[in-house]
């Protein structure tokens, strides 16, 4: 099984702050708690990338037969063991440390399959971090043929929005840096993703869904894709930015969404500013295509190409990246 080429990125998780952020994200927590409570009774559950162990604790509390928590960082794994003990769940949860790609199930489950795989693998714009690759690897090794993935479906969407002030700032920032013309750096500004909360009143168009992934059978290859987009102006305006958001859904109907109009999550929304904004009237349609790929050197990063058919028939192409 392939091992992540850039294990380095996992180092970010060996700190309290990121876990505090995730544990404080109420839409995230509510969705996972509800979905786990509804789906794990009497099941053998595998928690991929257990972090602080919250999903495993919920699964054990909800009556799972047994829970296997796999976490890359040994110090986190040790704390999951301690936490299970402190909460009377030590016999219900087996904690393994290391990469899920290299893990083996504990002896009492050796050679068996699991009934449920739960994981919070979600990154910015759904796929940044490419942790879903690791969950797919776990699924292909251990999920029973009639087993359940939590979440079971994930969709990535894009919408056009007005944001003239930030667009102007991006254009003009490098023009005068203490008297120097630094516009050589300007292309970077437009290339880089911005993570921020959308103002719903800035949304101008309908949304297009660029990926719709079924966790039961999605392959790693399908996490790089091309997709058409068709964004219909709902009123007159100028699209300065393409805003990506996602939703994931769970067996039983629970949905976790980062749509601009929904309560904010720690993923916020992911924004890409068009070098040339796109003006339209209500009813006009922005047509184009996105190509979503992993970073060339670091597969956890995202390289995005957006082509748009411009009024007059020319096509414009922008290259974007999510890399932190
Ligand atoms: N499940 C927790 C943590 C989610 S963050 C929660 O919902 O709060 C993702 C966690 O997965 C991090 O702690 C990271 O160290 C771990 N992780 C990511 N990729 C992994 C891999 N390939 N093998 C094992 N652990 C991994």
Describe this entry's structure for a reader:
By secondary structure, this protein is α/β, with parallel strands linked by helices. The protein is 21% helix and 36% strand. Strands 6, 7, 8, 10, 11 and 12 form a six-stranded antiparallel sheet that branches. Strand 10 and strand 11 form a beta hairpin. Helix 2 runs parallel beside helix 3. Bound molecules: S-adenosyl-L-homocysteine.
| Topology order in helix (H) and strand (E) letters | HHEHEHEEHEEHHEEEEEEEEE
Low-confidence stretches: none
Form type: elongated
Helix share, percent: 10-25%
**Annotation, overall tally of beta strands:** 15
In DSSP terms, counting alpha (H) and pi (I) runs of 4 or more, how many helices? 7
- Rounded to the nearest angstrom, the distance between the terminal CA atoms is 26 Å
Q: What small ligands are held by the chains?
A: S-adenosyl-L-homocysteine
Mean pLDDT: 96
- Strand content bin: 35-45%
Rg of Cα set: 21 Å
Question: How does the helix and strand content classify structurally?
Answer: alpha/beta
Major β-sheet profile = 6 strands, antiparallel
Which key phrases capture this entry?
6-stranded antiparallel beta sheet, binds S-adenosyl-L-homocysteine, 7 helices, alpha/beta, elongated, 324 residues, 36% strand, 5-stranded parallel beta sheet
List the helices and strands and how they pair.
Elements: H1 16-23, H2 26-39, E1 44-48, H3 54-61, E2 66-71, H4 74-86, E3 93-97, E4 114-119, H5 132-142, E5 143-150, E6 153-161, H6 164-172, H7 186-191, E7 194-196, E8 203-214, E9 225-232, E10 237-249, E11 255-257, E12 269-280, E13 285-294, E14 302-309, E15 315-322
Helix pairs in contact: 2-3
The chain binds S-adenosyl-L-homocysteine.
Residues 4, 10, 13, 22, 49-52, 54-55, 70-73, 76, 99-101, 120, 131, 134 line the site of S-adenosyl-L-homocysteine.
